Amino acid sequence: DYEEVKDLLQKGKAFFVDVREPKELVNDGRIPGAVNIPLNDVGVALEMSPEKFKEKYGREKPSPDDPNVIFSCRKGVRATSAMQTAHAKGYHAARFYRGSFCDWEERGGEVIKG
C-alpha cells in the first residue's frame, strides 16, 4: 500500500523495481528510489551474478529472502507478473505494489520527470 511503500522508500529499506518500459518512465515519470528492470528482463536479472547485476542496474542485487523486494508498474498488472516470476526464481517474499504508479501519483507521491 502507498503508506508502506513510501515509508520503506524514505528509509532506504525497499528494493523497489519499476517493470515498465524505459520510454514509459521518460513520458510519465518515475517513483524516486525505483530501479527500472522491464518486465521481460526480470527473470534474467534475478539469475545474474551479484557483480553483473550491480554493473547493469547500479544497485546491489537483493537477496532471495529480502522481504522488501517490491515490484511496480503503471497499475499493478505487470507488477503482479514480475512478482510471480520472482517467486519462481526463489524470491518467495517478493511483493507487488497494488495500484503501482497510478496509485502513487493519485496520492500525491513525488514523481521524477524526464
Automatic annotation (TrEMBL):
Domain Rhodanese: 10-113
UniProtKB keywords: Stress response
Annotated Pfam families: Rhodanese
Entry protein name: Putative heat shock protein
Source species: Amblyomma sculptum (Tick)
PROSITE patterns: RHODANESE_3
Signal sequence region: none
Highest taxon listed in the record's lineage: Eukaryota
